[in-house]
Amino acid sequence: MKLVYSGKTKDVFALEDGNYLLKFKDDVTGTDGVFDPGANTVGLTLEGAGRAGLRLTKFFFEALGQKGIPTHYIDANPEAATMTVKPATVFGKGLEVICRYRAVGSFLRRYGMYAAEGQSLDAFVEVTLKDDDREDPPITKDALAMLGLLSAEEYEVLKALTQQIGNIVKEELAKKNIELYDIKFEFGRIGADKQIALIDEISGGNMRAFKDGKYIEPLVLEKLMLEG
Ligand SMILES: Nc1ncnc2c1ncn2[C@@H]1O[C@H](COP(=O)(O)OP(=O)(O)O)[C@@H](O)[C@H]1O
Ligand SMILES: [Mg+2]
């Protein structure tokens, strides 16, 4: 097994059969010990966060697979906090795609002149570049095409998949009386036909979720979703 990438919250290994193994770490993004799904730094280490993140990721990717949504998922080992996936090529050096249901976080920081905090958004999709040095700048459909990262047709596929997946996660959370405010995904091209598919993870660290108006920490979210 060869380490191909060590990220903020996961290590990526190449398996002999050509697939990848994602190892979920106990590191969580944030600043100064406070969790923030939008942060570009590891803010804190929480015992059990890796295993909890993997378990929730497994739950969502299996649900998506049952609905025929293309993803990189093959299988998962909850005890080891690892997941076997199909290798993908990302767009440029990677994009993040955000689906928003309420105006919070960076959306509110940018558009606060016109948006009220917590205002409803209808599965609003935004794409950002994974570029730590430039603080993950948002990028438009036109800029993605112009810079050769994503064609206009591929953008529409990406957007539709994002809304479909966001809505599935939102519905699963709603079953536990939890409200999804926003969620962040990664996509890549998989296989010989370069199909656009969901990659990476779907865990508490990728979303903002609230219950009875109160924010739910990733580890608590994973408990609420997977127990009882
Ligand atoms: N199926 C896949 N193929 C290739 N790369 C992947 C796949 N799934 C996830 N990745 C990449 O692996 C890395 C996972 O590690 P992570 O700690 O989340 O990294 P980061 O610090 O970039 O967020 C990410 O860069 C993600 O884009
Ligand atoms: Mg990541």
TrEMBL record:
Transmembrane segments: none annotated. Keywords: ATP-binding, Ligase, Nucleotide-binding, Purine biosynthesis. Its EC number is 6.3.2.6. The keyword Iron does not apply. GO terms for molecular function: phosphoribosylaminoimidazolesuccinocarboxamide synthase activity. InterPro entries: SAICAR_synt/ADE2_N, SAICAR_synthetase. The keyword Nucleotide-binding applies. It catalyses: 5-amino-1-(5-phospho-D-ribosyl)imidazole-4-carboxylate + L-aspartate + ATP = (2S)-2-[5-amino-1-(5-phospho-beta-D-ribosyl)imidazole-4-carboxamido]succinate + ADP + phosphate + 2 H(+). Pathway: Purine metabolism; IMP biosynthesis via de novo pathway; 5-amino-1-(5-phospho-D-ribosyl)imidazole-4-carboxamide from 5-amino-1-(5-phospho-D-ribosyl)imidazole-4-carboxylate: step 1/2. Residues 4-215 form the SAICAR synthetase/ADE2 N-terminal domain. SUPFAM superfamilies: SAICAR synthase-like (SSF56104). Pfam families: SAICAR_synt (PF01259). Belongs to the SAICAR synthetase family. This is Phosphoribosylaminoimidazole-succinocarboxamide synthase. It comes from Sporomusa sphaeroides DSM 2875. The lineage of its organism: Bacteria, Bacillati, Bacillota, Negativicutes, Selenomonadales.
